[in-house]
Amino acid sequence: MLYSLTQFRSSSMWGQDKVPQSHFPGLPPAVFLHKNRYGCVLVALYRFLKTVQMERVSQGGAARDAFSCILFNSNTTVPILHDEGKSSEELIKILSKASVEGGTNFNRALDEVASVMTTNWNAKRQPVVIFLSDGEDQVNAGKMRGLCESAVNLGKPLAFYAISFGTETYSGSLRDMARIARQIYQTAAVNVSKVPCVYNNALDAVQLEDVFLDIAESVRSQRATLVLK
């Protein structure tokens, strides 16, 4: 799998209305310096990474994954780029050093996702994007369509998971992104029973962890399909 984990890091992530609830062996202590929404994201992401990496180990390590993480507010930064070797603990430790500040720009984030995906494309890997935000912004439908069509043109349709962390009041753009991805995936894929392009809402830290675990299960199913092919 070729993962692009795209996470919101604007000032709203400082919000302490949601705080990390779960503790797991190996989780870097620095995560709990973020007693806010961003800390919740780090814990949920850790559980996701741990799950997919354990799945890889259970298969004898044959399915080698690559992880990129794009953090965005009004701008973007890529603290993890096409990493194939770090553990989930090491990846989360890197992300725990990030600051949260600034505004919101979905379109700039999509541009960065497209750049990371195309630059690091591997025909043997299924591209997966997880796009998380707790804020609102307008999205250029053409950019989203272009991202998905680029993946198809390169050889594989894009699996896209949009996550709204908090109220759904301003989730319209995230819903639209998942809808566009689903339409293009359905057009490009053959004999697919379940399209891995989904919008999810998580109201609190526990629900966010559940969403990430559901995505991990969806990814596992995709991997099985790829193996069968």
TrEMBL record:
Pfam families xrefs: VWA
Sequence ranges assigned to domain VWFA in this UniProt record: 54-206
Protein name according to UniProt: VWFA domain-containing protein
